Write a sequence for this structure.
Protein backbone atom coordinates (compact mmCIF):
# COMPACT_ATOMS: atom_id res chain seq x y z
CA UNK A 1 0.00 0.00 0.00
CA UNK A 2 1.41 3.34 -0.94
CA UNK A 3 0.26 6.29 1.07
CA UNK A 4 1.33 9.87 1.40
CA UNK A 5 2.82 10.89 4.73
CA UNK A 6 1.26 13.82 6.53
CA UNK A 7 4.31 14.75 8.51
CA UNK A 8 7.47 15.26 6.51
CA UNK A 9 10.17 13.92 8.81
CA UNK A 10 10.65 10.93 6.49
CA UNK A 11 10.73 11.00 2.71
CA UNK A 12 10.33 7.23 2.41
CA UNK A 13 9.22 4.63 4.95
CA UNK A 14 9.10 0.89 4.22
CA UNK A 15 7.70 -1.38 6.94
CA UNK A 16 8.03 -5.15 6.62
CA UNK A 17 7.71 -5.05 2.86
CA UNK A 18 7.48 -8.48 1.24
CA UNK A 19 7.25 -9.22 -2.44
CA UNK A 20 6.55 -12.63 -3.94
CA UNK A 21 6.45 -13.31 -7.66
CA UNK A 22 4.32 -16.15 -8.98
CA UNK A 23 2.17 -18.35 -6.77
CA UNK A 24 1.92 -21.88 -5.33
CA UNK A 25 5.03 -24.07 -5.36
CA UNK A 26 6.75 -21.97 -8.01
CA UNK A 27 6.46 -18.75 -6.02
CA UNK A 28 9.71 -16.84 -5.61
CA UNK A 29 10.19 -14.52 -2.66
CA UNK A 30 12.12 -11.51 -3.91
CA UNK A 31 11.90 -9.38 -0.79
CA UNK A 32 11.44 -10.70 2.72
CA UNK A 33 10.59 -8.03 5.25
CA UNK A 34 12.40 -4.88 4.18
CA UNK A 35 12.41 -1.97 6.65
CA UNK A 36 13.86 1.27 5.39
CA UNK A 37 13.63 4.92 6.32
CA UNK A 38 14.95 7.80 4.26
CA UNK A 39 14.96 11.31 5.72
CA UNK A 40 14.06 14.34 3.58
CA UNK A 41 17.12 15.41 1.62
CA UNK A 42 19.03 12.26 2.54
CA UNK A 43 21.12 10.33 -0.01
CA UNK A 44 20.80 6.56 0.53
CA UNK A 45 22.50 3.90 -1.61
CA UNK A 46 20.96 0.42 -1.86
CA UNK A 47 23.80 -1.99 -2.50
CA UNK A 48 23.69 -5.66 -3.42
CA UNK A 49 24.68 -8.39 -5.85
CA UNK A 50 22.38 -9.32 -8.71
CA UNK A 51 19.16 -10.99 -7.67
CA UNK A 52 18.96 -9.15 -4.34
CA UNK A 53 15.79 -7.38 -5.39
CA UNK A 54 17.19 -3.85 -5.24
CA UNK A 55 15.40 -2.97 -8.46
CA UNK A 56 12.22 -4.51 -7.02
CA UNK A 57 12.51 -2.24 -3.97
CA UNK A 58 12.85 0.76 -6.26
CA UNK A 59 9.89 -0.30 -8.41
CA UNK A 60 7.76 -0.68 -5.28
CA UNK A 61 8.72 2.79 -4.04
CA UNK A 62 8.08 4.21 -7.52
CA UNK A 63 4.62 2.65 -7.55
CA UNK A 64 5.38 0.59 -10.67
CA UNK A 65 4.59 -2.54 -8.67
CA UNK A 66 2.63 -3.35 -5.49
CA UNK A 67 4.08 -5.16 -2.45
CA UNK A 68 2.64 -8.55 -1.47
CA UNK A 69 2.50 -7.37 2.13
CA UNK A 70 3.90 -4.57 4.27
CA UNK A 71 3.57 -0.82 4.03
CA UNK A 72 5.21 1.84 1.91
CA UNK A 73 4.75 5.51 2.67
CA UNK A 74 6.15 8.44 0.72
CA UNK A 75 6.15 12.14 1.48
CA UNK A 76 5.54 12.90 -2.18
CA UNK A 77 2.80 11.83 -4.56
CA UNK A 78 5.14 11.36 -7.46
CA UNK A 79 8.82 10.51 -7.05
CA UNK A 80 11.26 11.14 -9.89
CA UNK A 81 12.60 7.91 -11.39
CA UNK A 82 15.71 7.29 -13.47
CA UNK A 83 16.53 3.96 -15.07
CA UNK A 84 19.74 2.38 -16.31
CA UNK A 85 18.75 3.43 -19.83
CA UNK A 86 18.02 7.08 -20.42
CA UNK A 87 14.81 5.95 -22.20
CA UNK A 88 14.27 9.35 -23.80
CA UNK A 89 11.45 9.57 -26.32
CA UNK A 90 13.38 9.34 -29.60
CA UNK A 91 10.93 11.54 -31.51
CA UNK A 92 11.28 14.48 -29.09
CA UNK A 93 14.16 16.93 -28.71
CA UNK A 94 16.04 17.06 -25.41
CA UNK A 95 14.02 20.10 -24.30
CA UNK A 96 10.71 18.45 -25.29
CA UNK A 97 11.67 15.37 -23.31
CA UNK A 98 12.25 17.48 -20.21
CA UNK A 99 9.00 19.30 -20.91
CA UNK A 100 6.96 16.09 -21.25
CA UNK A 101 6.17 15.54 -17.55
CA UNK A 102 5.19 19.22 -17.24
CA UNK A 103 2.90 18.82 -20.23
CA UNK A 104 1.38 15.71 -18.62
CA UNK A 105 0.84 17.73 -15.42
CA UNK A 106 -0.99 20.38 -17.53
CA UNK A 107 1.47 23.15 -16.65
CA UNK A 108 1.02 26.35 -18.68
CA UNK A 109 3.21 26.97 -21.72
CA UNK A 110 5.34 29.87 -20.50
CA UNK A 111 5.90 28.22 -17.13
CA UNK A 112 6.82 24.98 -18.88
CA UNK A 113 9.41 26.67 -21.05
CA UNK A 114 10.97 28.55 -18.16
CA UNK A 115 11.19 25.40 -16.02
CA UNK A 116 12.65 23.37 -18.89
CA UNK A 117 15.35 25.95 -19.50
CA UNK A 118 16.15 26.07 -15.80
CA UNK A 119 16.49 22.27 -15.55
CA UNK A 120 18.59 21.97 -18.71
CA UNK A 121 20.89 24.65 -17.31
CA UNK A 122 21.06 22.71 -14.05
CA UNK A 123 22.48 19.66 -15.87
CA UNK A 124 24.64 21.97 -18.02
CA UNK A 125 22.86 21.19 -21.26
CA UNK A 126 21.33 24.61 -21.87
CA UNK A 127 22.60 24.87 -25.43
CA UNK A 128 21.65 21.43 -26.77
CA UNK A 129 17.94 21.65 -25.94
CA UNK A 130 16.89 21.34 -29.55
CA UNK A 131 18.99 18.26 -30.31
CA UNK A 132 17.42 14.83 -30.62
CA UNK A 133 18.48 11.95 -28.35
CA UNK A 134 20.44 10.21 -31.13
CA UNK A 135 22.55 13.35 -31.56
CA UNK A 136 23.68 13.23 -27.90
CA UNK A 137 26.28 11.09 -26.17
CA UNK A 138 25.31 8.49 -23.58
CA UNK A 139 26.30 10.76 -20.70
CA UNK A 140 24.35 13.70 -22.11
CA UNK A 141 21.29 11.47 -22.57
CA UNK A 142 21.47 10.42 -18.93
CA UNK A 143 21.66 14.08 -17.89
CA UNK A 144 18.58 14.86 -19.98
CA UNK A 145 16.88 11.91 -18.27
CA UNK A 146 17.89 13.38 -14.89
CA UNK A 147 16.45 16.78 -15.83
CA UNK A 148 13.25 15.08 -17.01
CA UNK A 149 12.97 13.06 -13.80
CA UNK A 150 13.43 16.24 -11.74
CA UNK A 151 10.75 17.98 -13.80
CA UNK A 152 8.29 15.19 -13.01
CA UNK A 153 9.09 15.22 -9.29
CA UNK A 154 9.29 18.88 -8.48
CA UNK A 155 6.25 19.80 -10.49
CA UNK A 156 4.28 16.64 -9.84
CA UNK A 157 3.53 17.97 -6.37
CA UNK A 158 4.01 21.68 -7.09
CA UNK A 159 7.04 21.94 -4.85
CA UNK A 160 4.96 21.56 -1.68
CA UNK A 161 6.16 18.27 -0.25
CA UNK A 162 9.78 17.24 0.01
CA UNK A 163 10.85 15.63 -3.24
CA UNK A 164 12.32 12.21 -3.89
CA UNK A 165 14.62 10.93 -6.61
CA UNK A 166 14.81 7.18 -7.30
CA UNK A 167 17.72 5.96 -9.39
CA UNK A 168 18.22 2.42 -10.69
CA UNK A 169 21.90 1.99 -11.63
CA UNK A 170 21.70 5.11 -13.80
CA UNK A 171 25.41 5.22 -14.64
CA UNK A 172 26.24 1.53 -15.01
CA UNK A 173 25.98 1.57 -18.82
CA UNK A 174 28.41 4.48 -19.17
CA UNK A 175 32.17 4.44 -19.63
CA UNK A 176 34.35 5.02 -16.55
CA UNK A 177 35.29 8.64 -17.28
CA UNK A 178 31.72 9.71 -17.99
CA UNK A 179 30.50 7.84 -14.92
CA UNK A 180 33.01 9.66 -12.73
CA UNK A 181 31.94 13.06 -14.07
CA UNK A 182 28.24 12.26 -13.75
CA UNK A 183 28.67 11.14 -10.15
CA UNK A 184 30.08 14.58 -9.36
CA UNK A 185 27.25 16.10 -11.36
CA UNK A 186 24.63 14.17 -9.40
CA UNK A 187 26.11 15.34 -6.08
CA UNK A 188 25.98 18.91 -7.33
CA UNK A 189 22.34 18.58 -8.45
CA UNK A 190 21.44 16.89 -5.16
CA UNK A 191 22.91 19.79 -3.20
CA UNK A 192 21.25 22.35 -5.44
CA UNK A 193 17.78 20.81 -5.18
CA UNK A 194 17.80 19.32 -1.68
CA UNK A 195 15.92 16.27 -2.87
CA UNK A 196 16.08 12.91 -1.09
CA UNK A 197 17.77 10.23 -3.21
CA UNK A 198 17.47 6.45 -3.20
CA UNK A 199 20.24 5.17 -5.44
CA UNK A 200 20.50 1.50 -6.44
CA UNK A 201 23.94 0.20 -7.40
CA UNK A 202 26.14 -2.90 -7.34
CA UNK A 203 29.30 -0.77 -7.22
CA UNK A 204 30.66 -0.37 -3.66
CA UNK A 205 32.94 2.54 -4.58
CA UNK A 206 30.08 4.40 -6.22
CA UNK A 207 27.83 3.78 -3.20
CA UNK A 208 30.43 5.11 -0.74
CA UNK A 209 31.32 8.11 -2.87
CA UNK A 210 27.74 9.22 -3.42
CA UNK A 211 25.73 8.12 -0.41
CA UNK A 212 25.40 9.44 3.12
CA UNK A 213 24.23 5.97 4.09
CA UNK A 214 24.85 2.60 2.40
CA UNK A 215 22.28 -0.19 2.88
CA UNK A 216 23.43 -3.71 1.96
CA UNK A 217 20.78 -6.17 0.80
CA UNK A 218 21.17 -9.95 0.78
CA UNK A 219 20.12 -12.00 -2.24
CA UNK A 220 17.24 -14.45 -2.69
CA UNK A 221 15.33 -13.41 -0.72
CA UNK A 222 16.31 -9.76 -0.29
CA UNK A 223 16.73 -8.59 3.29
CA UNK A 224 18.60 -5.68 4.82
CA UNK A 225 21.93 -7.14 6.01
CA UNK A 226 23.75 -4.12 7.33
CA UNK A 227 23.90 -0.34 7.10
CA UNK A 228 26.87 2.00 7.15
CA UNK A 229 27.03 5.71 7.73
CA UNK A 230 29.47 6.96 5.11
CA UNK A 231 28.64 10.67 5.17
CA UNK A 232 31.58 12.99 4.61
CA UNK A 233 34.27 10.30 4.54
CA UNK A 234 37.43 11.34 2.74
CA UNK A 235 40.85 9.94 1.94
CA UNK A 236 41.84 6.79 3.81
CA UNK A 237 38.55 6.72 5.77
CA UNK A 238 36.69 6.44 2.50
CA UNK A 239 38.98 3.67 1.25
CA UNK A 240 38.55 1.82 4.57
CA UNK A 241 34.78 2.01 4.27
CA UNK A 242 34.95 0.64 0.72
CA UNK A 243 37.11 -2.27 1.92
CA UNK A 244 34.85 -3.09 4.87
CA UNK A 245 31.67 -2.99 2.81
CA UNK A 246 33.32 -4.99 0.05
CA UNK A 247 34.33 -7.68 2.53
CA UNK A 248 30.80 -7.93 3.89
CA UNK A 249 29.35 -8.04 0.36
CA UNK A 250 31.71 -10.89 -0.58
CA UNK A 251 30.66 -12.76 2.55
CA UNK A 252 26.99 -12.40 1.59
CA UNK A 253 27.66 -13.56 -1.96
CA UNK A 254 29.79 -16.52 -0.80
CA UNK A 255 26.92 -17.79 1.33
CA UNK A 256 25.10 -18.57 -1.93
CA UNK A 257 27.80 -20.92 -3.20
CA UNK A 258 26.34 -23.98 -1.52
CA UNK B 1 56.62 11.51 -20.31
CA UNK B 2 55.84 13.65 -17.23
CA UNK B 3 55.28 11.64 -14.12
CA UNK B 4 53.63 12.63 -10.89
CA UNK B 5 53.96 10.93 -7.54
CA UNK B 6 50.60 10.54 -5.83
CA UNK B 7 50.35 10.36 -2.07
CA UNK B 8 47.58 8.11 -0.85
CA UNK B 9 44.13 9.62 -0.57
CA UNK B 10 44.76 12.30 -3.15
CA UNK B 11 44.60 9.56 -5.76
CA UNK B 12 40.90 8.92 -5.32
CA UNK B 13 39.21 11.25 -7.79
CA UNK B 14 36.47 13.66 -6.94
CA UNK B 15 35.57 12.53 -3.44
CA UNK B 16 35.23 14.55 -0.28
CA UNK B 17 35.12 18.24 -0.96
CA UNK B 18 31.77 18.29 -2.76
CA UNK B 19 30.09 16.59 0.23
CA UNK B 20 27.07 17.90 2.00
CA UNK B 21 27.67 21.18 3.78
CA UNK B 22 31.29 21.47 2.67
CA UNK B 23 31.68 24.17 0.07
CA UNK B 24 33.16 23.06 -3.23
CA UNK B 25 36.45 24.60 -4.19
CA UNK B 26 35.77 27.13 -6.97
CA UNK B 27 38.73 25.83 -8.95
CA UNK B 28 37.20 22.38 -8.87
CA UNK B 29 33.78 23.60 -10.06
CA UNK B 30 35.35 25.24 -13.09
CA UNK B 31 37.39 22.10 -13.61
CA UNK B 32 34.52 19.64 -13.56
CA UNK B 33 32.37 21.73 -15.87
CA UNK B 34 35.30 21.99 -18.29
CA UNK B 35 35.82 18.22 -18.16
CA UNK B 36 32.15 17.72 -18.77
CA UNK B 37 32.10 20.12 -21.70
CA UNK B 38 35.14 18.33 -23.13
CA UNK B 39 33.47 14.93 -22.76
CA UNK B 40 30.31 16.25 -24.40
CA UNK B 41 32.33 17.52 -27.35
CA UNK B 42 34.25 14.24 -27.67
CA UNK B 43 31.35 11.86 -27.26
CA UNK B 44 28.70 13.58 -29.32
CA UNK B 45 28.02 11.48 -32.41
CA UNK B 46 28.96 13.36 -35.59
CA UNK B 47 25.93 14.56 -37.53
CA UNK B 48 26.14 13.24 -41.06
CA UNK B 49 25.96 15.54 -44.05
CA UNK B 50 26.97 15.17 -47.69
CA UNK B 51 23.34 15.56 -48.80
CA UNK B 52 24.35 16.80 -52.23
CA UNK B 53 26.07 13.61 -53.25
CA UNK B 54 23.08 11.63 -51.93
CA UNK B 55 20.74 13.79 -53.97
CA UNK B 56 22.72 13.19 -57.15
CA UNK B 57 22.69 9.48 -56.43
CA UNK B 58 18.96 9.44 -55.64
CA UNK B 59 17.92 11.41 -58.73
CA UNK B 60 20.46 10.60 -61.41
CA UNK B 61 20.81 6.84 -60.96
CA UNK B 62 17.13 5.93 -61.53
CA UNK B 63 17.05 8.18 -64.60
CA UNK B 64 20.08 6.38 -66.00
CA UNK B 65 18.36 3.05 -65.29
CA UNK B 66 15.25 4.16 -67.21
CA UNK B 67 17.31 5.33 -70.18
CA UNK B 68 19.16 2.00 -70.26
CA UNK B 69 15.87 0.09 -70.17
CA UNK B 70 14.50 2.10 -73.09
CA UNK B 71 17.70 1.54 -75.08
CA UNK B 72 17.50 -2.22 -74.46
CA UNK B 73 13.85 -2.16 -75.52
CA UNK B 74 14.71 -0.25 -78.72
CA UNK B 75 17.46 -2.76 -79.54
CA UNK B 76 15.16 -5.75 -78.98
CA UNK B 77 12.50 -4.13 -81.18
CA UNK B 78 14.93 -3.38 -83.97
CA UNK B 79 16.06 -7.01 -83.97
CA UNK B 80 12.41 -7.85 -84.86
CA UNK B 81 12.39 -11.01 -82.75
CA UNK B 82 8.68 -10.63 -82.01
CA UNK B 83 5.80 -9.35 -84.19
CA UNK B 84 4.81 -5.71 -83.77
CA UNK B 85 1.54 -6.54 -81.91
CA UNK B 86 3.61 -8.21 -79.16
CA UNK B 87 6.50 -5.79 -78.89
CA UNK B 88 5.78 -2.31 -80.25
CA UNK B 89 8.49 0.31 -80.70
CA UNK B 90 9.16 2.68 -77.78
CA UNK B 91 8.15 5.64 -79.93
CA UNK B 92 4.78 4.02 -80.75
CA UNK B 93 4.02 3.74 -77.04
CA UNK B 94 5.23 7.29 -76.51
CA UNK B 95 3.00 8.48 -79.39
CA UNK B 96 0.05 6.71 -77.75
CA UNK B 97 0.70 8.48 -74.46
CA UNK B 98 1.25 11.79 -76.20
CA UNK B 99 -2.10 11.35 -78.01
CA UNK B 100 -4.10 10.99 -74.79
CA UNK B 101 -2.16 13.81 -73.19
CA UNK B 102 -2.80 16.15 -76.16
CA UNK B 103 -6.53 15.45 -76.46
CA UNK B 104 -6.85 15.76 -72.68
CA UNK B 105 -8.26 12.23 -72.13
CA UNK B 106 -5.39 11.37 -69.81
CA UNK B 107 -6.64 13.84 -67.19
CA UNK B 108 -10.00 12.09 -67.18
CA UNK B 109 -8.44 8.64 -66.68
CA UNK B 110 -6.14 9.92 -64.01
CA UNK B 111 -8.86 11.84 -62.19
CA UNK B 112 -11.31 8.91 -62.22
CA UNK B 113 -8.73 6.41 -60.98
CA UNK B 114 -6.66 8.53 -58.60
CA UNK B 115 -9.61 10.12 -56.81
CA UNK B 116 -11.12 6.65 -56.31
CA UNK B 117 -7.84 5.31 -54.98
CA UNK B 118 -7.39 8.29 -52.63
CA UNK B 119 -10.96 8.09 -51.29
CA UNK B 120 -10.67 4.31 -50.92
CA UNK B 121 -7.35 4.73 -49.14
CA UNK B 122 -8.69 7.38 -46.75
CA UNK B 123 -11.69 5.20 -45.85
CA UNK B 124 -9.28 2.30 -45.30
CA UNK B 125 -7.15 4.43 -42.95
CA UNK B 126 -10.25 5.48 -41.00
CA UNK B 127 -11.34 1.84 -40.65
CA UNK B 128 -7.92 0.27 -40.11
CA UNK B 129 -6.57 2.64 -37.44
CA UNK B 130 -9.08 1.86 -34.67
CA UNK B 131 -9.05 -1.77 -35.78
CA UNK B 132 -5.26 -1.91 -35.43
CA UNK B 133 -5.36 -0.24 -31.99
CA UNK B 134 -7.94 -2.73 -30.72
CA UNK B 135 -6.05 -5.68 -32.21
CA UNK B 136 -2.79 -4.54 -30.60
CA UNK B 137 -4.22 -3.77 -27.17
CA UNK B 138 -6.93 -6.41 -26.60
CA UNK B 139 -5.35 -9.88 -26.43
CA UNK B 140 -8.65 -11.77 -26.83
CA UNK B 141 -9.57 -9.90 -30.02
CA UNK B 142 -6.07 -10.38 -31.32
CA UNK B 143 -6.17 -14.12 -30.68
CA UNK B 144 -9.56 -14.34 -32.41
CA UNK B 145 -9.10 -12.01 -35.39
CA UNK B 146 -5.33 -11.75 -35.80
CA UNK B 147 -4.99 -14.84 -38.04
CA UNK B 148 -7.99 -13.70 -40.10
CA UNK B 149 -6.39 -10.31 -40.74
CA UNK B 150 -3.03 -11.78 -41.74
CA UNK B 151 -4.84 -14.31 -43.94
CA UNK B 152 -6.72 -11.50 -45.67
CA UNK B 153 -3.41 -9.76 -46.27
CA UNK B 154 -2.13 -12.64 -48.36
CA UNK B 155 -5.40 -13.06 -50.28
CA UNK B 156 -5.10 -11.30 -53.65
CA UNK B 157 -7.78 -8.62 -53.59
CA UNK B 158 -8.70 -9.35 -57.23
CA UNK B 159 -10.33 -12.49 -55.81
CA UNK B 160 -12.96 -10.22 -54.23
CA UNK B 161 -14.02 -8.65 -57.56
CA UNK B 162 -16.60 -11.29 -58.52
CA UNK B 163 -18.12 -11.24 -55.04
CA UNK B 164 -18.18 -7.43 -54.94
CA UNK B 165 -19.89 -7.26 -58.36
CA UNK B 166 -22.53 -9.78 -57.24
CA UNK B 167 -23.14 -7.82 -54.01
CA UNK B 168 -23.19 -4.31 -55.37
CA UNK B 169 -23.53 -4.67 -59.15
CA UNK B 170 -21.29 -2.60 -61.40
CA UNK B 171 -21.16 0.41 -59.08
CA UNK B 172 -18.56 2.46 -57.23
CA UNK B 173 -19.57 0.50 -54.13
CA UNK B 174 -18.17 -2.68 -55.64
CA UNK B 175 -14.89 -0.95 -56.47
CA UNK B 176 -14.50 0.57 -53.00
CA UNK B 177 -15.25 -2.81 -51.43
CA UNK B 178 -12.35 -4.36 -53.31
CA UNK B 179 -10.03 -1.47 -52.42
CA UNK B 180 -10.96 -1.65 -48.73
CA UNK B 181 -10.51 -5.41 -48.53
CA UNK B 182 -7.07 -4.92 -50.05
CA UNK B 183 -5.85 -1.98 -47.97
CA UNK B 184 -7.42 -2.35 -44.50
CA UNK B 185 -5.57 -5.54 -43.43
CA UNK B 186 -2.14 -4.19 -44.34
CA UNK B 187 -2.66 -0.81 -42.64
CA UNK B 188 -4.03 -2.52 -39.52
CA UNK B 189 -1.16 -4.99 -39.29
CA UNK B 190 1.33 -2.17 -39.85
CA UNK B 191 -0.08 -0.39 -36.80
CA UNK B 192 -0.11 -3.61 -34.76
CA UNK B 193 3.56 -4.32 -35.50
CA UNK B 194 4.40 -0.67 -34.83
CA UNK B 195 2.87 -0.96 -31.36
CA UNK B 196 4.48 -4.37 -30.76
CA UNK B 197 7.91 -2.91 -31.44
CA UNK B 198 7.69 -0.14 -28.84
CA UNK B 199 10.45 -0.75 -26.26
CA UNK B 200 8.62 -1.68 -23.00
CA UNK B 201 10.67 0.89 -21.06
CA UNK B 202 8.90 3.79 -22.80
CA UNK B 203 5.39 3.11 -21.42
CA UNK B 204 6.98 2.51 -18.01
CA UNK B 205 8.75 5.86 -18.19
CA UNK B 206 5.44 7.41 -19.24
CA UNK B 207 3.85 5.98 -16.13
CA UNK B 208 6.49 7.35 -13.74
CA UNK B 209 6.27 10.73 -15.48
CA UNK B 210 2.58 10.78 -14.62
CA UNK B 211 0.81 9.71 -17.83
CA UNK B 212 -2.62 8.13 -17.42
CA UNK B 213 -4.06 5.68 -19.98
CA UNK B 214 -5.24 8.31 -22.45
CA UNK B 215 -2.15 10.51 -22.09
CA UNK B 216 0.03 7.44 -22.49
CA UNK B 217 -1.70 6.56 -25.78
CA UNK B 218 -1.49 10.12 -27.06
CA UNK B 219 1.99 11.16 -25.92
CA UNK B 220 3.81 7.84 -25.94
CA UNK B 221 2.21 4.86 -27.72
CA UNK B 222 1.03 6.59 -30.90
CA UNK B 223 4.21 8.60 -31.58
CA UNK B 224 6.35 5.57 -30.71
CA UNK B 225 4.36 3.39 -33.14
CA UNK B 226 4.53 5.98 -35.93
CA UNK B 227 7.31 4.37 -38.03
CA UNK B 228 5.48 1.03 -38.18
CA UNK B 229 2.20 2.77 -38.84
CA UNK B 230 3.73 4.75 -41.71
CA UNK B 231 5.14 1.57 -43.23
CA UNK B 232 1.64 0.11 -43.02
CA UNK B 233 0.16 3.21 -44.67
CA UNK B 234 2.67 2.99 -47.49
CA UNK B 235 1.87 -0.63 -48.12
CA UNK B 236 -1.83 0.16 -47.74
CA UNK B 237 -1.58 2.75 -50.51
CA UNK B 238 0.16 0.23 -52.79
CA UNK B 239 -2.60 -2.29 -52.07
CA UNK B 240 -5.33 0.31 -52.68
CA UNK B 241 -3.88 1.20 -56.05
CA UNK B 242 -3.39 -2.42 -57.08
CA UNK B 243 -6.85 -3.49 -55.97
CA UNK B 244 -8.38 -0.53 -57.75
CA UNK B 245 -6.66 -1.41 -61.04
CA UNK B 246 -7.78 -5.04 -60.72
CA UNK B 247 -11.35 -3.92 -60.06
CA UNK B 248 -11.39 -1.40 -62.92
CA UNK B 249 -9.91 -3.90 -65.31
CA UNK B 250 -12.50 -6.55 -64.59
CA UNK B 251 -15.58 -4.51 -63.73
CA UNK B 252 -15.96 -2.26 -66.75
CA UNK B 253 -19.20 -0.43 -67.39
CA UNK B 254 -20.18 2.99 -68.79
CA UNK B 255 -21.65 4.14 -65.45
CA UNK B 256 -18.32 3.51 -63.73
CA UNK B 257 -16.59 6.27 -65.69
CA UNK B 258 -13.44 5.86 -67.72
CA UNK B 259 -10.37 5.17 -65.57
CA UNK B 260 -6.92 3.81 -66.28
CA UNK B 261 -8.15 0.25 -65.85
CA UNK B 262 -10.77 0.75 -68.56
CA UNK B 263 -8.17 2.31 -70.84
CA UNK B 264 -6.05 -0.79 -70.37
CA UNK B 265 -9.08 -2.99 -70.94
CA UNK B 266 -9.90 -1.16 -74.20
CA UNK B 267 -6.32 -1.62 -75.39
CA UNK B 268 -6.71 -5.36 -74.87
CA UNK B 269 -10.06 -5.44 -76.71
CA UNK B 270 -8.52 -3.57 -79.66
CA UNK B 271 -5.40 -5.79 -79.58
CA UNK B 272 -3.40 -2.55 -79.52
CA UNK B 273 -0.19 -3.42 -77.70
CA UNK B 274 1.13 0.15 -77.68
CA UNK B 275 -2.07 1.27 -75.93
CA UNK B 276 -1.74 -1.56 -73.38
CA UNK B 277 1.87 -0.62 -72.64
CA UNK B 278 0.91 3.06 -72.41
CA UNK B 279 -1.76 2.08 -69.86
CA UNK B 280 0.73 0.06 -67.82
CA UNK B 281 3.17 2.95 -67.96
CA UNK B 282 0.57 5.42 -66.66
CA UNK B 283 -0.47 3.07 -63.84
CA UNK B 284 3.17 2.62 -62.88
CA UNK B 285 3.76 6.37 -63.03
CA UNK B 286 0.90 7.12 -60.61
CA UNK B 287 1.99 4.39 -58.17
CA UNK B 288 5.60 5.54 -58.11
CA UNK B 289 4.65 9.23 -58.21
CA UNK B 290 2.49 9.06 -55.07
CA UNK B 291 5.09 6.97 -53.29
CA UNK B 292 7.86 9.44 -54.13
CA UNK B 293 5.82 12.60 -53.58
CA UNK B 294 3.98 11.62 -50.40
CA UNK B 295 5.22 8.54 -48.56
CA UNK B 296 8.96 8.66 -49.14
CA UNK B 297 9.43 12.24 -47.78
CA UNK B 298 7.07 11.52 -44.87
CA UNK B 299 8.87 8.33 -43.90
CA UNK B 300 12.23 10.01 -44.32
CA UNK B 301 11.32 12.90 -42.04
CA UNK B 302 10.00 10.58 -39.35
CA UNK B 303 12.96 8.18 -39.45
CA UNK B 304 15.56 10.98 -39.65
CA UNK B 305 14.09 12.67 -36.59
CA UNK B 306 14.66 9.45 -34.63
CA UNK B 307 18.18 8.89 -35.90
CA UNK B 308 17.11 5.87 -37.95
CA UNK B 309 19.09 6.77 -41.03
CA UNK B 310 19.26 3.61 -43.10
CA UNK B 311 16.36 4.97 -45.05
CA UNK B 312 17.12 6.72 -48.34
Amino acid sequence: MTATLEATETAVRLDGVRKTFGSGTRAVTALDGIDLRVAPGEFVCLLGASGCGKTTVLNLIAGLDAPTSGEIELSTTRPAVMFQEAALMPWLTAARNVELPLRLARVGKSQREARTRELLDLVRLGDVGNKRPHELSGGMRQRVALARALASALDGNRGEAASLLLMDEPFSALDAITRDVLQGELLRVWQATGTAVVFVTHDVREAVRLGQRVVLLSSKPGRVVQEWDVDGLTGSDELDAVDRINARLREVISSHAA
Amino acid sequence: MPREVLDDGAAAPGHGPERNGVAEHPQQVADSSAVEAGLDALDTPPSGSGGRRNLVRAVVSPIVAIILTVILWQVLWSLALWPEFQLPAPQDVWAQIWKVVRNGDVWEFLWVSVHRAVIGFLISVAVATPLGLVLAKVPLIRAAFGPLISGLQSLPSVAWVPAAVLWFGLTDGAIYTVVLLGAVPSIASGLVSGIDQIPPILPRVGKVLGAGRLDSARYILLPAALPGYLAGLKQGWAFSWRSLMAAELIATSPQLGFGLGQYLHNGMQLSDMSMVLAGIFLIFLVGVGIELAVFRPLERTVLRARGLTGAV
User: Anything to note?
Assistant: The first strand of chain A starts at residue 2 and ends at 4. Strands of chain A lie at 2-4, 12-21, 28-38, 43-47, 69-74, 80-82, 164-168, 196-201, 213-217, 224-229.
